[in-house]
Every structure is written in structure tokens, then in C-alpha cells.
Amino acid sequence: MSTTTAHGYTYDETLTTSPVTLAQLREVEASVLWSAEDAAALRRAGEILVPQTDAILDVWYGFVGATPHLVETFAGPDGEPSPEYLAAVRERFGLWIRDLCERDHDQRWLDYQNEIALRHTTARKNATDGIDSPSTHVPLRHLIALIVPITVTIRSFLESGESDATKVDAMYQAWFKAVTLTVALWAQPYAPELW
Ligand code: HEM
To answer: Is the residue at 19 inside a domain?
Structure first.
């Protein structure tokens, strides 16, 4: 795995222990039909996707930037999208693509899912980059809804590195499951009592 890092990226540092247990993680994995074959397919996807990280982020940032109710979460003190905030998060987003494909689902992975979750909520949003933003949290409805664009836009990137349609399908399904699994975990601090 590459060792690239970014400001505020704390995966390999001391992390708050996730309130989600490994047993609960395994249950959510089962709910999304996660299997050892998916883990292998996702690693193969990583080999294709990680070198294309910038192009993938261009697509996602293009969509978020063009969608007012999404880009408003990146507002700076003047209420306009903050280029500094967007750029800082973009770097960590790139590392997330790599981590999603390559990291094992162990306690550390679970703890960093909790960290990312909190950074979308009032608990920790804006703190990592020291942004004085009027946006206090990412609305849960949009967090969940973004599973769709984050998934459907990935197929063409997979196809650019794999001509066998069956293998593309396996990687695509593994990606979809992994994104859904992480968003299910990220929902935890939004509704701790009901999660
Ligand atoms: C499937 C859905 C989503 C994924 C996979 C995702 C992924 C990420 C990642 C990887 C980070 C950086 C985490 C880190 O600090 O290491 C991040 C931060 C952020 N995301 Fe999302 N995100 C999603 C949904 C959304 C939505 C819907 C919005 C806006 C409406 C949003 C706005 C933000 C903002 C503002 C930050 C920076 C938070 C901070 O201040 O630290 N995200 N996201």
C-alpha cells in the first residue's frame, strides 16, 4: 500500500475507539452480502482505481460543486465555497479511495470509520481543517443519497482497466457493498440510540 498522507489524515494514529463493535460490523457486512470474494475483487479494483484517483475526484467534485445543497457544506466564513476547505478534504478523499479498496476491516478500520463519521457531524465537522464554516454538519439524507453517485460513476473507471465484463461486475458489486457498508457505519453518530 502506498504511504501517501495528507493533513488531518489520522488513520494510522491514535484514534477514538468506535462505539460500533466488531461483532456489529460483521453483522452489517452480512447485511450487505459482503464476502471474501468481495474483499479480493475490491483489492483488484484498487489496483485500477488508485492510479485514477485524480480523475475520479474530478468527477465527484464536479458533481458536488454543481449541486448547491451539497457544495454549501464546504462554505467558508463568507458563505461561499472555500477553495482551501475543498482542497484539504479532496486529499483525504483520495486516500479514502485507496483505504476502501485495500484496508482490512479490523478495529483500526472501524475506528477510522467512526472518525470520518464524526467529521460529517456537529461533533467534528470543520475542526480538522480549522474552517470557520456556517455549515455545521452534512445532512444524513445526503450522506445516504451520495451512495448512488459515488457508485454509478465508478463503473467506467473499472472498465478502463478491465475488459472482462464478469470481472468488472464483481469489482463494481464489491465497491457498491463497501460504500454502503461504510455509510451504514457513518450513520451511527447521527442516531446513536436507534442505530
Ligand atoms: C457516500 C457518501 C460520502 C462519502 C463516501 C464521503 C467521503 C468523505 C471523506 C473520505 C471525507 C474525508 C474524511 C477524512 O477527513 O479523512 C469526507 C469529508 C467531508 N465530506 Fe463527505 N462523503 C460522503 C457524503 C458527503 C455529502 C453528501 C456531503 C455534503 C453534502 C459531504 C461533505 C463532506 C465535507 C464537508 C467533509 C469535510 C468534513 C470536515 O470538516 O472534516 N460528504 N467525506
So the answer is: no
Ligand 1 centroid–CA 120 distance in Å is 6
CATH of the domain at 105: 1.10.490.10
Spell out the SS3 assignment of 19-74. Answer: CCCHHHHHHHHHHCCCCHHHHHHHHHHHHHHHHHHHHHHHHHHHHHHCCHHHHHHH
Total domains, the chain: 1
Does ligand 1 lie within 6 Å of residue 177's CB atom?
A: no
* pLDDT at residue 40 in the model: 98
Residue 153 near residue 58 (C-beta atoms within 8 A): no
pTM: 0.97
Q: How far is the CA of 102 from the centre of ligand 1 (A)?
A: 19
Range of the structural domain that residue 152 is part of:
26-190
Is 7 domain-assigned?
A: no
Residue of 9, 12, 57, 93 with the most ligand 1 atoms within 8 Å of its CB, for mutation:
93
- For ligand 1, whether the C-beta of 53 sits within 6 Å is no
Residue-wise pLDDT for 106-159, tens only, equals 999 999 999 999 999 999 999 999 999 999 999 999 999 999 999 999 999 999
